[in-house]
């Protein structure tokens, strides 16, 4: 397969077949396949490799999926606890060992400032550490660049501290007093629990996130779902792909061996729950009257997964221990829609409502009106632009260790095919 030489162009622009933007597990998975194929490329990372794992996770962070699902290219999990859940330091060790297993052409502390298509169909890639002309650009910068806070957060009294998930490391980061955790995706419920374990005073604003069983009928629910083929279902198989892409992850925990999280039990044991936050003005915080509905919807998701597993067990005659029926141990007597944070002793807000990607440097018509990439399994209609590492890029596991390598293999296979379309290397080299 012909591959262009990496040679300088006028104005110090280097001609190269492939540029990868981002050196997380997605970008380095693509690099692993390109290295194996002998294709010249460069991986540009504005921080250091795996920066988010090292510097943007709290101390007690651990995987919520079992270790056996860690399947980076040529580097499956090989530890002695496949059914366990790696804590942060072990995750870092795993991804670092993966990166050390091959010689990626990585350039760290290089920020890409512009990617733009040129008249000849190539792409100018500019950064604060060099300039390239590439036939193919893989965008693997992830979907967690910009922390989300609502506009009305600016109206909260400055006496109440505001912290985002990305900046939380440990309970000591939270000022004395009650902390209102906003959001019930995986981060929100785990940080609420982290604070409670430390004996801190916490309240929780409950959003519409779904929840999942942990252990069910003798096995981890994710084991059942994998065996059932659930994780092989593609985004194209979903009734409403756009809605599926936008869904919040089911909440549960891998902490202390793994457990499910039932917010009703926390409320029964004294945790103050509110509905979704709708506004802030000084020390006044308002909530939607949706607490009970959000709890009911989370339970419906939980029960739906149990029902799927039950049906699979029955259909296949599997001998699995029965489970007691689910019961709601608590329900709100009233819906609180307004509080005075100062009167409630709230001294801080911990925002756990997600992130958005930042594609401000990507000057190519490959995004929809909401800023989401337009692609089919990471391959854009714009020849030469690809995405990796996004949730539901192709399957549920696309943004996780489970399937990011599969998507990287697909994208790099497309690149290899296109590189081979022109034996002179004039278009794709």
From TrEMBL:
Domain of life of the organism encoding this protein: Bacteria
Keywords on record: Oxidoreductase
Signal peptide: none
Gene Ontology MF: a single term: flavin adenine dinucleotide binding
InterPro entries: Auxin_biosynth/cation_transpt, CHP04046_FMN-dependent, FAD/NAD-bd_sf
Protein's UniProt name: Putative flavoprotein involved in K+ transport
């Amino acid at each position: 397969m012909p591959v262009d030489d990496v040679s300088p162009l006028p104005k110090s622009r280097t001609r190269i077949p492939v540029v990868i933007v981002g050196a997380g597990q997605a970008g380095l998975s693509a690099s692993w396949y390109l290295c194996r194929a002998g294709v010249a490329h460069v991986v540009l990372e504005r921080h250091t490799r795996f920066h988010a794992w090292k510097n943007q996770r709290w101390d007690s962070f651990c995987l919520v999926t079992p270790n056996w699902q860690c399947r980076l290219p040529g580097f499956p999990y090989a530890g002695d606890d496949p059914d366990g859940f790696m804590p942060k330091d072990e995750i870092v060790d795993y991804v670092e060992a993966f990166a050390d297993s091959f010689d990626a052409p990585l350039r760290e502390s290089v920020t890409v400032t512009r990617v733009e298509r040129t008249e000849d169909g190539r792409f100018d890639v500019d950064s604060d550490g060099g300039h390239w002309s590439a036939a193919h650009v893989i965008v693997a910068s992830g979907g967690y660049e910009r922390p989300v806070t609502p506009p009305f957060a600016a109206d909260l009294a400055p006496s109440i501290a505001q912290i985002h998930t990305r900046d939380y490391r440990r309970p000591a980061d939270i000022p004395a007093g009650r902390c209102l955790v906003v959001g019930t995706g995986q981060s929100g419920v785990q940080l609420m629990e982290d604070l409670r374990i430390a004996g801190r005073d916490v309240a929780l604003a409950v959003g519409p996130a779904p929840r999942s069983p942990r252990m069910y009928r003798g096995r981890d629910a994710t084991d059942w779902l994998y065996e059932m083929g659930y994780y092989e279902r593609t985004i194209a198989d979903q009734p409403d792909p756009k809605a599926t892409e936008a869904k919040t992850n089911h909440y549960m925990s891998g902490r202390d061996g793994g457990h499910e999280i039932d917010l009703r039990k926390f409320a029964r044991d004294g945790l103050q729950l509110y509905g979704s936050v709708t506004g802030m003005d000084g020390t006044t915080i308002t909530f939607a009257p949706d607490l009970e509905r959000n709890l009911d919807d989370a339970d419906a998701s939980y029960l739906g997964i149990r029902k799927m597993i039950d049906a699979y067990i029955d259909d296949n005659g599997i001998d699995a221990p029965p489970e007691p029926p689910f019961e709601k141990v608590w329900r709100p007597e009233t819906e609180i829609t307004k509080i005075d944070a100062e009167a409630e002793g709230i001294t801080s807000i911990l925002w756990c409502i997600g992130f958005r990607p930042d594609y401000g440097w990507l000057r190519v018509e490959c995004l929809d009106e909401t800023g989401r990439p337009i692609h089919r399994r990471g391959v854009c209609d714009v020849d030469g632009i690809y995405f990796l590492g996004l949730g539901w890029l192709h399957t549920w596991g696309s943004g996780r260790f489970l399937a990011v390598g599969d998507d990287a293999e697909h994208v790099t296979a497309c690149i290899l095919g296109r590189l081979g379309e022109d034996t002179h290397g004039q278009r794709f080299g």
